[in-house]
Design a protein that fits this description.
Number of helices of chain A: 36
Strand content of chain B: 5-15%
Structural class of chain B: alpha/beta
Number of strands of chain B: 18
Radius of gyration of chain B: 23 Å
Radius of gyration of chain A: 33 Å
Number of strands of chain A: 7
Shape of chain A: globular
Shape of chain B: globular
Largest sheet of chain B: 9 strands, mixed
Order of helices and strands of chain B: HEEHEEHEHHEEHHHHEHEEEEEEEEHEE
Distance between the termini of chain A: 43 Å
Distance between the termini of chain B: 40 Å
Strand order of the largest sheet of chain A: 1-2
Helix content of chain A: 40-55%
Oligomer: heterodimer
Number of helices of chain B: 11
Strand content of chain A: under 5%
Chain lengths: ~800, ~475
């Protein structure tokens, strides 16, 4: 179950969200009075209830008539006032108009029903119940006891969706910004950014040195640092025409296949991509998961329009495409998600596991694509955003009608031939075994016919096996599985259901209009709703993620929560400008990279500036580029790259051995719980997140375990040795040190740095000759340094 | 993901003052606030943090009994079973996991009274029995489902699926740990890891610094406890020279960048890693103990875990979990399905002396007051029989006991029905147990939250209440 976060949040972060809390519930609170019987009972009546009635109900009725009941009887809940008033199959249990004839009282008197069934209540117990009903069934207003469905604070039937949209920036349509005439060389991004900087009285840092900038661009776009030659070439170009130089560099890298390998990983975080299904014991592997990963790499390299990119991932199995043979592979986005199971078939546990699996789909869809925390509406209406619990189950219904299967990657004829061959072999073989068993059994004999049959079976089997038809590959994908609506699950418990939840899109994004998701599972229509240009969130959320990967932080710093509790954009107009342009330019991701990276904002130096730092230490206004530590993928790939060992082969099945593998880190095997493979343990140590839920942003931690890896691991020792091999042909100690600095940091060492190196080498040579040479020890230190690990 | 720590963060200076320690012992690793803002300098993710209120206990040792020990054969004495042997009164006629339909089975073990408080215990745990005056038995525990994997996650992480942080991770997240050279949370078992493995001590979505470090007591190598702890290539002096060069280079780099919290933190973190290489093997070296201490604990692997737990807690480790396992079985007590007399006897023999020794040892050293010891499985076993001499799972009622850490000794709280199947009096859900444990550690279970997936999570989800009656 989810955590009801209201009270906690308000208590805890009152300061930071006060504004939001007070602004928002206008639409939530104003209708409270009408739908909730706003009756306040006197304290002594509540006391009477707590003292006499609640214990009695718990003791004698809860076992069959409460949210905790193993099996609810008669559809009646007595653990809330609403439950009693609403009643069960036999009607209302408490009649406030005619208390004496309330079903509750008649039942405990054994006049109509006979309750409790295992023995009549004592007369004085019946009497306190009678008195309580007569009082009007007083019940504390705020109850911590479980009850029936949490009463909606809002009457969603009458809810004014359009008014609600006006309450919060993210629900509103993307606005096309009005730009003044800009100089042709001026990037629109700088217009917005400079304006804010000027307002705050901050001065932007100058452009980064070319050698810093070129490293930044390489690591950003392809996740591998430039070689000394590449740096020198850029510096030379840059001296002639810096604008032209960066444009050419961006073009070159965007057309490299390494680009897709870098940016696919960012998307795989959103997709909580893993090579195993998860659940208990993490024992279900997803051996073909890599096909989805490779699909993403290819789509990004091909600059597939992002609307199609998203559409395929939701409903690719239902789409046709001229260029893609199997768009269904893309549905791995959902099909590869965690699938929860029960460990013994207990019904509560089975239901809970199913609810959890559905919740993964909703969470990934709503946070990953829309920046809405949809999961918060699993047990009750969303506490802060206008997402009724019913809307949650409207979406859940779509996935409830969707199945996961092994999708053949072959012509149907091939599949059919293969499968019928397999079936025939199976049947014949079984028959053969039966007959042979009979033959070998002393107590039975084969008839003549059976002898003949056995002969035929053996011959036929032999020929079938000698000439098997070609097999085929599969991908884990979605397929249609039904077309029904779900009911709202009371408090998220799928075994206790309430009102029907017709499948339709989130109402806050359709102005309350019905966007039906009823054809088939509803996925095809769902995909259309996600990429509809009128949907203000998909584009904003996507563009913001791209921005985050270039700058370290998004324009909205809660990239998967654009709701009321999310952060507001630092540059709202810029965000809308970029979102609008993105659609105008055909949802082209590469064009978006160009726009961002050719801005001054992107090319600024990352150096410290005291005055600016004091005002805006978090760099919200983008007065500099924020220096960042590389993510684990870029860092490991860079290590292998500077030692000359990196294999940049295309995809295929993942590797699990971190010591010997030289492929890009993108291809490392990842288990759902991060506890199965050697690769897991390596990745997790360097902030690779748990692939249990869609990842908004990677955590950044610096812990000693990381340094144990740098100091002591075989991986680092091997890199050090490889690096020394690479520079061995360079003659002279100083020249070698210089070579190492250029390879690793893209610069030459200072006098002091050279001296430190020489001293270290001399001292290290003094002791015994251990398994590592002084140069290898030196190389290990150089590879472990911050300068190598940071992007500036 | 962003990380808002609800607890008041100490400045580095506060932390140093509070510890009375020099710079050398306080690491400055950081879960880095991405904003790198000048004012928001939070200390290391593991450095001690202020609790919500004055704590009664500083450390937790959880003696975890995976598989479900039977309450009516250990500490929940039910003489009525023998009187109605073979019968199936309505009160015990509830659905079990395997839907067994047999009658009541008397305990094959004999019970007698122990201690000043006269607690009835079976002869499975005679040594623990001697400690009953320090123990608080909770007989009215109940949990959500009768399946191992889910119930174990509930006991260790407060949720039925393996997707939430473990209790130990929550504790270290909330309180940090007192010794920066050791992991803050250590999980141990002999041979087999308990079912769900790492999920039992996982940080899940909390930052990686809060994960439990697992140690297999059976083939423990003190210098391999933490991955890459030992340098296989260089003697210490050469390693030191390497570390010094790295620090110098990083300092030069920091000077160029002028101001960068990440760089500062990484320099501290490297030093801490260097020290860990020597502090960890030292903590796990039981050869330093006197013979009388070793004799007190006895020779079982579980006992060794208990002794290590004391050594770790002594050095400031926040939480230690020791799971029982024999024969490489990941839910050891589940042999109870087929063989209560034999299986339970072997399991109790494997841990009784070690557990009692741990309590005695902690008490002698004056550490029991601030160490909360918790014993129990994920659920219990039914008083009715399964097959000839077994018992099926029972999540309706089971026993957990606690000792030390500001919990009343010599009392029994709550009760199951007269045959021991269902908790009927003063019922305590696992969430309530968690709330109580956090409370003793100075944490309000409703305030210890972490923002993830767009919402705030707690160990106790939306449940849990502190069982005040247990507090001394």
């Amino acid at each position: 179950m989810l955590l009801c976060c209201t009270n906690l949040l308000i208590r805890r972060t009152l300061g930071s969200i006060l504004g939001a809390v007070f602004l928002l519930p206008v639409f939530l609170v104003c209708r409270t009075a009408s739908s909730q019987e706003g009756k306040q009972f006197p304290a002594e009546q509540i006391e009477y209830f707590e003292e006499h009635i609640r214990p009695l109900l718990i003791k004698h009725c809860y076992e069959c008539h409460s949210t905790d009941a193993p099996e609810l009887k008669g559809g009646l809940y007595v653990d809330s006032r609403e439950g009693l008033l609403k009643g069960g199959d036999s009607g209302s249990a408490v009649d406030l108009e005619d208390p004496e004839h309330s079903l509750l009282l008649e039942s405990v008197r054994w006049e109509s029903l006979e309750m409790p069934p295992d023995g009549k209540l004592k007369p004085d117990q019946v009497e306190v119940l009678r008195r309580w009903v007569e009082l009007g069934a007083p019940w504390p207003r705020v109850t911590t006891s479980d009850g029936t469905m949490l009463p909606s604070k809002v009457d969603w039937q009458k809810f004014d969706w359009r008014a609600a949209q006006k309450e919060h920036w993210a629900w509103q349509p993307v606005r096309r910004a009005e730009l003044p005439e800009l100089a042709p060389s001026r990037n629109a991004i700088d217009y917005f950014v400079d304006h804010k900087l000027a307002e705050a009285g901050l001065s932007a840092m100058p452009p980064a040195e070319p050698r810093i900038l070129v490293r930044r661009v390489y690591l950003d776009l392809i996740g591998i640092p430039p070689t000394p030659t590449q740096i020198a070439a850029f510096e030379k170009q840059s001296a002639k025409d810096s604008n032209r130089a960066i444009q050419d560099l961006i073009e070159e890298l965007l057309s490299s296949p390494l680009y897709g390998q870098r940016w696919a990983r960012h998307w795989l975080d959103v997709a909580r991509y893993s090579d195993g299904q998860g659940g208990f014991l993490d024992n279900t592997a997803l051996p073909q998961a890599w096909r989805f990963r490779d699909w993403v790499v290819q789509a990004l390299n091909d600059n597939m329009p992002i609307n199609r990119f998203l559409q395929f991932q939701i409903a690719g199995d239902l789409e046709q495409d001229l260029e893609l043979e199997y768009p269904g592979i893309a549905t791995g986005f959902f099909a590869l998600g965690p699938t929860y199971r029960s460990d013994g078939g207990d019904p509560d546990s089975v239901a809970q596991a199913k609810g959890e699996t559905l919740d993964d789909r909703i969470d990934t869809l709503t946070r990953g694509l829309l920046g809405i925390t949809g999961s918060c509406a699993r047990c009750h209406d969303h506490k802060f955003d206008p997402v009724p619990q019913q809307d949650y189950y409207s979406l859940a219904g779509v996935f409830n009608n969707t199945a996961i299967h092994d999708m053949p990657l072959a012509d149907p004829n091939v599949v059919q031939t293969f499968e019928s061959h397999k079936r025939e072999v199976g049947e014949l073989d079984k028959r053969r075994k039966d007959l042979e068993k009979k033959l070998n059994n002393k107590e039975s004999e084969l008839t003549t016919d059976e002898y003949a049959e056995l002969d035929v079976a053996r011959t036929r089997l032999e020929s079938l096996r000698a000439d098997p038809p070609p097999g085929y590959e599969i991908a884990h994908a979605l397929r249609e599985g039904g077309s029904g609506d779900m009911k709202v699950a009371i408090r998220g418990n799928l075994r206790k259901t309430g009102d029907l939840a017709p499948r339709r899109f989130l109402r806050i994004l359709t102005s309350g209009e019905n966007w039906p998701l009823t054809e088939g599972s509803g996925r095809k229509a769902l995909a259309e709703a996600i990429i509809d240009p009128a949907n203000p969130l998909t584009v904003r959320v996507f563009v913001n993620r791209i921005w985050m990967h270039h700058f370290g932080e998004g324009l909205v710093r809660t990239p998967s929560n654009f709701g009321v509790l999310g952060e507001k954009p630092t540059h709202p107009k810029l965000l809308d400008y970029l979102a609008d342009q993105f659609v105008v330019q055909g949802w082209s991701l590469k064009e978006l990279h160009r726009t961002i990276m050719t801005s001054n904002a992107y090319q600024r130096s990352s150096l410290h500036h005291d005055g600016n730092f004091r005002v805006d230490g978090g760099n919200r206004l983008l007065w500099r580029m924020s220096p960042r530590r590389m993510d684990v993928e870029a860092w490991r790939d860079s290590l292998l790259s500077v030692t000359g060992e990196l294999e940049v082969s295309p995809g295929g099945p993942p590797f699990a051995d971190i010591v010997s593998a030289k492929r890009r880190t993108l291809y490392a095997k990842v288990s759902r719980n991060g506890d199965v493979y050697q690769t897991d343990s390596f990745l997790r140590r360097f902030d690779f997140p748990l692939m249990r839920a869609t990842v908004a942003q990677r955590p950044k931690s610096i812990v000693p375990q990381q340094y144990l890896f740098l100091l002591n691991s075989r991986f680092m020792i091997d890199r050090a040795k490889a690096l020394v091999c690479r520079i061995e042909e360079v003659k002279g100690e100083i020249a070698r040190i210089e070579r190492m600095y250029s390879l690793l940091y893209g610069r030459l060492p200072s006098g002091a740095e050279k001296k430190l190196g020489l001293e270290f080498l001399t001292h290290s040579a003094e002791g015994e000759n251990g398994p590592l040479t002084p140069w290898q020890r030196y190389a290990q230190v150089m590879l472990s340094s911050n300068e190598f690990m940071f992007v500036r | 993901m962003f990380h808002r720590n609800p607890l008041p963060t100490l400045t580095r200076r506060d932390a140093l003052r509070q510890l009375g320690a020099g710079f050398g012992t306080l690491g400055l690793a950081g879960v880095l606030d991405s904003s790198a803002s000048a004012v928001d300098v939070s200390a290391s993710p593991l450095s001690p943090k202020l609790p919500h209120f004055a704590p009664k206990a500083k450390h937790v040792i959880q003696l975890f009994m995976p598989g479900g020990p039977s309450q009516v054969d250990t500490f929940d004495y039910k003489p009525a079973i023998a009187k109605c042997a073979g019968q199936r009164p309505e009160i015990v006629d509830r659905k079990s996991l395997r839907n067994t339909k047999n009658g009541l089975m008397p305990s094959p073990f004999s019970f007698r009274q122990y201690g000043q408080c006269g607690k009835w215990c079976s002869d499975l745990f005679p040594k623990v029995g001697e400690m009953v005056d320090d123990i608080c038995f909770i007989h009215s525990m109940h949990t959500d489902i009768p399946e191992h994997a889910g119930a174990m996650m509930m006991m260790n992480a407060g949720h039925l699926q393996p997707s939430r942080p473990s209790m130990g991770s929550w504790l270290v997240y909330g309180l940090g740990t007192e010794n920066q050279d050791l992991p803050g949370f250590v999980a141990m078992s002999p041979r087999a890891q308990p079912r769900n493995k790492l999920a039992n001590w996982s940080n899940a979505f909390l930052p990686g610094a809060y994960t439990g470090t697992y140690v297999n007591i059976h083939d423990m190598k003190p210098d391999r406890i933490v991955e890459d702890l030992k340098n296989e290539w260089l003697p210490r002096a050469d390693q030191r020279r390497q570390a010094d060069l790295l620090t110098r280079l990083n300092q030069i780099d920091l000077q160029r960048q002028q101001h960068d919290r990440q760089l500062e933190a990484s320099i501290q973190s490297m030093e801490m890693a260097f020290r860990m290489q020597f502090a960890v093997p030292d903590a796990f070296d039981t050869n330093q103990e006197t013979q009388s201490t070793l004799d007190l604990y006895g020779g079982t692997e579980y006992a060794k875990g208990c002794l290590l737990a004391r050594r770790l807690v002594e050095r400031g480790v926040r939480m230690v979990q020791i799971s029982l396992s024999i024969d490489g079985y990941d839910i050891a007590w589940d042999t109870g399905h087929g063989d209560i007399p034999g299986g339970h006897r072997r399991l109790a023999d494997a841990c009784d002396q070690g557990i009692a020794a741990l309590l005695k040892d902690l008490k002698q050293r004056g550490m029991l007051d601030e160490t909360l010891v918790i014993w129990g499985g994920e659920f219990g076993r039914a008083p009715t029989s399964e097959g000839q001499k077994g018992r099926d799972h029972d999540h309706y009622g089971f026993t957990v006991w606690m000792a030390g850490g500001g919990i009343k000794g010599g009392i029994s709280y709550g009760a199951t029905d007269e045959f021991g199947l269902s908790a009927v009096e003063n019922r305590v859900h696992v969430h309530d147990l968690h709330a109580t444990i956090l409370h003793q550690m100075g944490l309000d279970h409703e305030k210890l939250t972490y923002r993830y997936s767009g919402r705030d999570y707690r160990l106790t989800d939306v449940h849990g209440k502190v069982v005040k009656e247990l507090l001394a």
